[in-house]
Amino acid sequence: MSSFPDRSAYAGPVLDPRAAGRSFAARARFNGWIVLASWPREEVAALLPPELELVPNAQDDHPVAFILGKQTAGALFLGPFTVPTGANYHEFGMAVPFVRHRRGRYLHLFVPRMYATYFPAVWTGNVQYGFAKEMAKFERHGNIHVITAEDRTLLLHASFEATGEWCSGGGCTLPNFDAMRSAFVLPVIGCLNDRRLVSSYFDWDFREARVRPADGTVTIVAPLVAGSPARESDDLPSGTFEVDGMVWKLSWPGPCRF
């Protein structure tokens, strides 16, 4: 796979937040990196719960994405009010776009694992959203980012290097940028502890953000899910974006519509 595919490459309709009856619950301002990569289809499929499958295409690989950075200026939406929480924490997530329920037709994005440094985000992410979040420690050494479990077991490390200048996120024309955005408007599936699937939505607003191209590598050391292999994931060509000041909203969770 030489580039990150647009969602038009995958057959299936998309259910937007309004049609699903969702409103947004919280927001934060994100600074960090978005890495687009691809893995062999069988390795990606092994990350999914039994009810889900990868949407077929003509490639031997399937796209995956990693998000690593800091969430700042956290706030909750309570009716017409925006209530600042003061939450500032580091977070990592892996996302698998273009999946569907085996008996369904809508395109979704699945989150197999997240790590964070803020317990309320971990608790809510698991109990309400099914994001398989774990508490972790984040350290940075120059361009190298290291994530360890609370007992200091190495989970993963990542490296990033800028390859271009900053541009306005609202008018960004970098390769793969629009394709990345089209993947992250898909309804997000999480798997609760009782195996129920729930869905929510991200809203990534780049209008006030800056974006610049980068090279990125994410090396998974500990299994993301039971039985998944350790592996090094280089980004696709033009497949990493450094982001400064993106507004990230998350909807209330609800039942999946397949």
What does this structure look like?
By secondary structure, the protein is mainly beta. The chain has a single domain (7-255), classed as Beta Barrel (Acetoacetate decarboxylase-like). 8% of the residues lie in helices and 50% in strands. The chain is built from 3 helices and 18 strands. The chain has helices spanning 41-45, 119-127, 177-183; strands at 24-40, 52-54, 61-78, 81-84, 89-101, 108-116, 133-135, 137-141, 144-148, 154-162, 167-168, 188-191, 197-200, 202-205, 210-220, 231-234, 240-251, 254-255. It has an 18-stranded mixed sheet that branches. Strand 3 (61-78) and strand 4 (81-84) form a beta hairpin. The protein is globular and about 45 Å long. The mean pLDDT is 95.
Write the layout of secondary structure elements.
Layout: E1 24-40, H1 41-45, E2 52-54, E3 61-78, E4 81-84, E5 89-101, E6 108-116, H2 119-127, E7 133-135, E8 137-141, E9 144-148, E10 154-162, E11 167-168, H3 177-183, E12 188-191, E13 197-200, E14 202-205, E15 210-220, E16 231-234, E17 240-251, E18 254-255
Parallel strand pairs: 6-7, 6-12
Antiparallel strand pairs: 1-3, 1-17, 2-5, 3-4, 3-5, 5-6, 8-9, 9-10, 10-15, 11-15, 12-13, 13-18, 14-17, 15-16, 15-17
Which fold name is given in CATH as the topology?
Answer: Acetoacetate decarboxylase-like
Categorize the overall geometry: globular
Q: Kindly estimate the percentage of residues that lie in beta strands according to DSSP.
A: over 45%
In CATH, what is the class?
A: Mainly Beta
The value of Rg in angstroms is 17 Å
> Based on helices, strands and strand pairing, what is the structural class?
mainly beta
- Along the chain, the helix and strand elements come as EHEEEEEHEEEEEHEEEEEEE
Strand count, sense and closure of the main sheet? 18 strands, mixed
Overall pLDDT level: 95
Query: How many DSSP E strands?
Result: 18
N-to-C span: 28 Å
The helix tally amounts to: 3
CATH homologous superfamily assignment: Acetoacetate decarboxylase-like
Give the domain tally: 1
* Portion of residues within helices: under 10%
Low-pLDDT segments: none
